[in-house]
Specification:
single chain; about 100 residues; alpha+beta; YaeB-like fold; five-stranded mixed beta sheet; 3 helices; about 40% helix; globular
């Protein structure tokens, strides 16, 4: 399977990495980026690795989530042979706002 990040998820990743560079430095930001992106290979090998995202079960698509860092989780769905990353969600935010990240 292949993993495709949508534009909104890529935007969230860029915001997180830029914040990390400004706050913690480039080395820490690179480590965080690698930690997040290494999960692409894990998902490609095992698409059902993440659990069903119960906060999004009222949506027409079945979304799954995978914690990729203590503060972030990938929200994704599977279509045929492709895994679409829909969002990179900061788990410190209000869980009720998760749906807003998907729309």
């Amino acid at each position: 399977m292949r993993v495709v990040w949508n534009k909104k998820a890529e935007y969230h990743l860029n915001v997180i990495i830029n914040y990390s560079i400004e706050t913690f430095g480039e080395r820490v930001a690179k480590r965080l980026y690698r930690r997040i992106k290494e999960n692409d290979a894990r998902l490609a090998a095992n698409p059902n690795l993440g659990k069903r995202e119960l906060l999004l079960e009222d949506m027409p698509i079945v979304y799954r989530s995978l914690v990729v860092h203590k503060h972030y989780k990938l929200i994704y769905h599977i279509e045929a042979e492709t895994i679409y990353v829909a969002a990179l969600f900061d788990t410190r935010r209000d869980p009720a706002s998760l749906g807003d990240h998907i729309k």
